[in-house]
Specification:
It contains 8 helices and 10 strands. By secondary structure, the chain is an alpha/beta fold. It has a 4-stranded mixed beta sheet. Strands 1-6 form a two-stranded parallel ribbon. Strands 7-8 form a two-stranded parallel sheet.
């Protein structure tokens, strides 16, 4: 769904996140993820380079602060596809950083039922049964975090999920605090960076 949103929304950019897990078939370094050695990842954590980072299913994932801020400052909207741990970290940092706070919009996306999530995970055929069981248990715990998000999208189909996300993005672009409007300006319109 993230790719569909990126393909259909001008000005929206995806941040390439970092991970310590090995690449899956077809994944490319710098495109899908920045694949880092655990030692390099740890150095970056210690240096405070991550906007958020987490241990997930035995691997580390993180979003470089510089990657997000560079895109925001260039006038782009930024898409972060992160888990609830990452979102909590970003919310904490944004509470102390006006630039991030102005840009932050949170959306919790979830399948309608546990059995639907299980079917999707099994259908991907990328994880062992043990990993699927861990992911399901984690998903149940993460669902308790949904009220902390501004928007909730209950996943139906790719097309419906994409339409919901586009509607949220459109509404946020027209939030009064984001519209660069001056009465004497010849043209006014939505600012970027929801």
């Amino acid at each position: 769904m993230s790719q569909g949103l990126l393909d259909n929304e001008a000005g929206l950019r995806r941040v390439v996140t970092c991970t310590t897990r090995p690449p899956r078939a077809g994944e490319r370094d710098g495109v899908d993820y920045h694949f880092l050695q655990p030692v390099d990842f740890a150095r970056r954590v210690e240096a405070g380079q991550f906007l958020e980072h987490a241990d997930v299913y035995g691997n580390r994932y993180g979003t470089l602060k510089s990657s997000v801020l560079d895109l925001l400052r260039a006038g782009h909207d930024v898409l972060l596809a992160i888990d609830v741990q990452g979102a909590a970290s970003v919310r904490r940092l944004a509470a102390r950083d006006p630039e991030l706070q102005q840009a932050l919009v949170t959306v919790f996306l979830t399948p309608a039922t546990r059995s639907e999530l299980e079917a999707r995970l099994r259908g991907r055929a990328q994880d062992t049964p043990e990993v699927i069981a861990r992911r399901l248990a984690t998903a149940e715990a993460e669902l308790a975090e949904a009220p902390r998000y501004e928007y909730l999208v209950v996943s139906r189909s790719r097309a419906e999920d994409l339409a919901a996300m586009r509607a949220i993005l459109s509404a946020e672009r027209f939030r009064q605090s984001r519209v660069d409007f001056h009465w004497d300006a010849a043209v006014a319109g939505p600012a970027t960076n929801p």
